[in-house]
Amino acid sequence: MTKVKVAGFSVSLDGFAAGTAQSVDHPLGMRGEELFQWFFPTRTFRQMVGKEDGDTGLDDQFARRAMDGFGAFILGRNMFGPVRGEWPDDQWKGWWGDNPPYHAPTFVLTHHPRSSIEMLGGTTFHFISDGIESALEKAREAAAGKDVKIGGGVETVKQYIRAGYVDEIHLAFAPTALGQGESLFSGLDLRALGYRTVEHVSSERATHIVLAK
User: Fold this and answer.
1) Is residue 133 part of a domain?
2) Which of 28, 86, 94, 124 has its CA 20 to 30 A from that of 198?
3) Buried b (16+ CB within 10 A) or exposed e, 7-25
4) What is the pLDDT along the chain (213 residues), one digit of tens a residue?
5) Taking the model in full, what pTM does it have?
């Protein structure tokens, strides 16, 4: 049975999942890279950028779980890129180059329609302008029995959690405080929504907590 998951979602100790002033030069926001120091050294990430080295310990296990077994992905427009408003042209195709890491149908939420983009490696970006339910319906169908991942950004994840669609949430708490940025927990009552901790374990670089209904 298809499950909807948030996986490998990095959060600071004070609850921020992205820094301020996201831009082309700072896609994770100012100081946002600090949230992913558990992820960047892993073999999973290094393979994503064409390398063959990398750590294979606990963090890599969670990194692999965050990418494997998904038949479709859903992204917010901010996660796809920094372009705002009407699409000026078809030049921007995401942050990831010609071969994005998804390798599956990937549905991008937007208020502005755009034709689908077929990339290398099996990723096709589909742009959905009629709401989160429509995107999830299409993603479930495309996943063909595999799980669907809500990939981000912060507001997209919160929308799906608040709507009750997310079955499992894996948070990687980085040992850093950002002080400001995009808050994951504001406006969310995870207990009232039925989530409980089903797994928690720490590495040198992060504390991994898995919540499920």
Assistant:
1) no
2) 28
3) bbbbbbeebbbbbeebeee
4) 899 999 999 999 999 999 998 888 888 999 999 999 999 999 999 999 889 999 999 999 999 999 999 999 999 999 999 988 999 999 999 999 999 999 999 999 999 999 999 999 999 999 999 999 999 999 999 999 999 999 999 999 999 999 999 999 999 999 999 999 999 999 999 999 999 999 999 999 999 999 999
5) 0.96
